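quick q for whoever's on today - can somebody do inverse folding on this one?? i tried earlier but teh output was garbage lol. tokens:
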């Protein structure tokens, strides 16, 4: 059987159908051919919706089988119906392409809807091509090529547990693929925490992207100059209509390949300004100063939203600290998710949490901690005061009772400062679950919001300027007006 290079294989097929081959599809074909001949075996192809990427990949499967009929290909998709769609497409190509004569078997049982076996010299247990849903059991199967076609869709990535399950199932590929085999991912991002991201998501513990090291081809609908990649199918008028109908987030995700949540989010962490500076305490002319990034801080607010329970289960216990500077900027310096240690039964859970909050207050020179006393929190103020005194930390405990609905409180706290670009966030904040909570939060939804509630409490609080009895004489008073003032009274009445 005479073989040709893959781009020519695509053009011959399109000519048979009476179609042209768009420029971007030629680019896909050339890229796949170059990677295949260069023996690059970890590939990611991302292209805008309706670009024909699955059609090109189906032709690629038919082409490699025409070159080597002994190859075995597995198609994984979000569900079996989608995987079978690609298998049917490849069967149709094998039956009708001028360059695949003799591949179709004579036995009908080898030409099924979800798998088929071409005429091949080798006697192999697995079929030439098989379709599997991502939730299927693939243990015991073997394949030289595994196509992951749209394994990430809203149903597999719209929550953290689903994203974790997807990654665990995709990890099974290594046990199915033969040594030196090829993985080809095809799709578009459906979430900020997409498997296709080119940067690690620090807030969920990623040290490197999920597909780190994969050769990538990304074809967005519009280039840097705003020109359409397929002007015949997607002229400017249609692009504008799609953007208007689907909304900016879905357009950016599905047509521009930018990892964002498809659902319109209310809170956008990318509006926060990242900084890396740490607190610096100093004294000038006997006046204590607390500086951050060259700016003098004039007030602080700290909010603790307590919760009990086993670590990693139920609501999280979160303490947050926000500083304000002389120019009205807000500095979210720390968000800490605190847990007790069940291996220390000699210290009760509440005391462990209070000691961590006391250390948090001492570390950040906080003048007060506001403690939400709704529910479980009403038992903690006295215990926290005891631990602060034992640690020698001059810090007030302010009991706060939240009466407004949590969703409304979060909206009121974040909307204005994010819109004004006035909220800064320390790099450490970006490594916590707080960022994920921001991206996924929806009013009335069931997403986690413990960190959001704590930071909202800080933002809504008035600057605390309470004077307290000095527990430690060495504790500096860095806030303006926080210390005493001796006036010169050398004058006569």
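ok took a stab at it. sequence:
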């Amino acid at each position: 059987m005479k073989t040709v290079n893959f781009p020519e294989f695509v053009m011959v097929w399109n000519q048979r159908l009476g179609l042209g081959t768009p420029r971007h599809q030629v680019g896909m074909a050339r890229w796949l051919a170059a990677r295949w001949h260069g023996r690059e075996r970890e590939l990611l192809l991302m292209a805008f919706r309706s670009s024909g990427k699955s059609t090109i990949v189906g032709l690629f499967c038919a082409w490699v089988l025409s070159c080597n009929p002994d190859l075995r290909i597995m198609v994984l998709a979000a569900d079996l119906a989608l995987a079978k769609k690609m298998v049917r497409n490849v069967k149709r190509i094998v039956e009708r392409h001028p360059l695949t004569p003799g591949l179709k078997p004579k036995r009908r049982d080898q030409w099924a809807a979800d798998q088929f076996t071409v005429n091949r010299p080798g006697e192999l247990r697995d079929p030439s091509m098989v379709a599997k849903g991502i939730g299927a059991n693939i243990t015991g199967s073997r394949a030289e090529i595994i196509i992951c076609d749209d394994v990430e869709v809203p149903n597999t990535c719209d929550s953290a547990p689903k994203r974790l399950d997807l990654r665990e199932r995709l990890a099974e590929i290594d046990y199915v693929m033969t040594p030196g085999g090829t993985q080809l991912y095809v799709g578009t991002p459906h979430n900020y925490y997409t498997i296709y991201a080119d940067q690690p998501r620090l807030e969920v513990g990623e040290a490197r992207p999920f597909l780190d090291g994969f050769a990538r081809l990304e074809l967005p609908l519009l280039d840097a100059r705003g020109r359409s990649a397929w002007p015949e199918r997607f002229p400017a008028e249609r692009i504008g209509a799609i953007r208007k109908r689907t909304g900016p987030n879905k357009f950016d995700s599905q047509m521009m390949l930018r990892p964002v949540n498809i659902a319109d989010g209310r809170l956008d962490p990318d509006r926060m300004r990242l900084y890396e500076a740490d607190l610096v305490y100093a004294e000038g002319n006997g006046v204590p100063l607390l500086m951050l990034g060259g700016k003098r801080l004039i007030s602080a607010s700290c909010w603790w939203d307590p919760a009990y329970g086993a670590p990693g289960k139920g609501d999280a216990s979160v303490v947050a600290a926000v500083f304000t500077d002389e120019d009205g900027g807000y500095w979210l310096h720390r968000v800490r998710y605190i847990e007790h240690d069940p291996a220390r039964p000699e210290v009760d859970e509440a005391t462990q949490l209070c000691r961590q909050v006391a250390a948090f207050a001492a570390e950040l020179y906080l003048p007060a901690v506001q403690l939400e006393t709704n529910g479980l929190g009403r038992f903690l103020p006295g215990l926290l005061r005891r631990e602060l005194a034992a640690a020698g930390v001059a810090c007030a405990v302010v009991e706060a009772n939240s009466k407004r609905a949590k969703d409304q409180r979060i909206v009121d706290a974040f909307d204005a400062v994010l819109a004004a670009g006035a909220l800064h966030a320390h790099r450490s904040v970006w490594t916590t679950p707080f960022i994920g909570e921001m991206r996924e939060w929806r009013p009335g939804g069931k997403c986690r919001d413990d960190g959001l509630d704590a930071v909202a409490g800080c933002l809504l609080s008035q600057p605390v300027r309470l004077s307290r009895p000095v527990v430690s004489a060495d504790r500096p008073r860095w806030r303006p007006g926080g210390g005493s003032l001796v006036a010169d009274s050398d004058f006569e009445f």
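fwiw The chain has 14 helices and 16 strands. also The chain has two domains: 6-254, 269-460. so keep that in mind when u check it
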